[in-house]
Amino acid sequence: MYSFCSRLARLFAFIGGLVLSILIVLTCLSIAGRLLNGMLHADWLQSAMPSMAAMFLGWGIGPINGDFEIVEAGMAFAIFAFLPLCHLNGAHASVDIFTSKLPARVRQILGALVDVVFAAVLILIALQLFEGMQSKRNSGQTTLLLEFPVWWGYAASLSGAFIAAFISSYIALVRIAETVSGHQILPAETEAEN
Question: Which of 114, 166, 175, 176 has the most neighbouring CB atoms within 10 Å?
């Protein structure tokens, strides 16, 4: 089961990275287009080379329409796409000033408890995203500029949230089994470096 979860988490992280890379390129192109558009509208360029400025403006050089709407939906998806791998590898930030002095058995029990709470929170987030997606889908709400349905962003994020909830539930169950049996089940690399 661990290898299945690992492959699934890595696939989602890869897709999240791809989406994030596309968003970076989109943002850079939009900023460059906005800058060039401003330069092409500048008085000095309009008076020095009006035909060239008009030609480039005719090509539609400018900011990408609705770029912030795409970035908003894409970033939400990317965050949820990285969560499963982050949790599977135990890569969440933690502060263990007090717990590092506790006995190993107590730290193991606390770790299992934290994983159970984390799984419950991710399940709650996935359920709330589902409810939000249903609400946006039923209302027919669209984005302002591109007019694509808002629920599409929720649906994309929900896929990552569902996988994160599934993997965190698996981790919680395994941590409980490890705590009860006293044997390590998950590979050692899944524990966060503190």
Answer: 175
